[in-house]
Amino acid sequence: MGTPAVLGWIDTAVFTVLAAWYAVRAVVAGGWRHRVSSALHLAMSAAMAAMPWTVLPAEPQVVLFSAGALWFVWAALTEPAGGDPLLDGAHGGRVGALYHAGMMASMVWMAIAMTPASPAMDMAGHDHAAMHAMSMSAMTGGAPWATAVSGALGAGYALGAVWLLEVVVRQAVRDPVEPGRLLDAVAAALMTLGMSYGFLALMT
């Protein structure tokens, strides 16, 4: 990811806060479905926090986030209509579960796109400055079609972030809810915004 250091630190800070939030939710959320969903978001936040600084191994990410996508598809199929929105943060119910399935699938794509194009490319020897200066052409996602996919995902998540920010405002001002629900909405909006940044940064 060829991103300026200051943006990398902002990305890391945001996703570290999100990881802490979902760690709490994984412990205190009612029901095992809520806890599994929060644990998957915790793993996703941790991966995103590390991405500006290093290239994580692709294989475990592909396995984990593919399983996460299947989990949320299963949640969408089994969640009753109008189910507890805490399962899916601000999105709620079946639509929210499908949204998060797509987000997990996006993490699979990001892991693949950030895989070094050459097997001989050793990331362990790069310092932070070198990581930021690295061209996306050195990554699998540097192919023109792959860059277009990442750009489309980044734009889509940017639109999603705008929608979720409206949800936050509505829940905070026009339709007040308990603090936990509101913080879930804020976390969902921040995660969506961070995903947008991550995919757009892949293009640089």
From TrEMBL:
- Taxonomically, the superkingdom here is Bacteria
Question: What are the TM regions of this chain, as residue ranges?
Answer: 6-24, 36-55, 61-77, 97-117, 145-169, 181-203
Supply the InterPro entries for this chain.
DUF5134
Which keywords label this protein?
Answer: Membrane, Transmembrane, Transmembrane helix
Keyword Membrane on entry:
yes
Q: Does the keyword Transmembrane apply?
A: yes
Q: What is this protein called?
A: DUF5134 domain-containing protein
Recorded source organism is Amnibacterium endophyticum
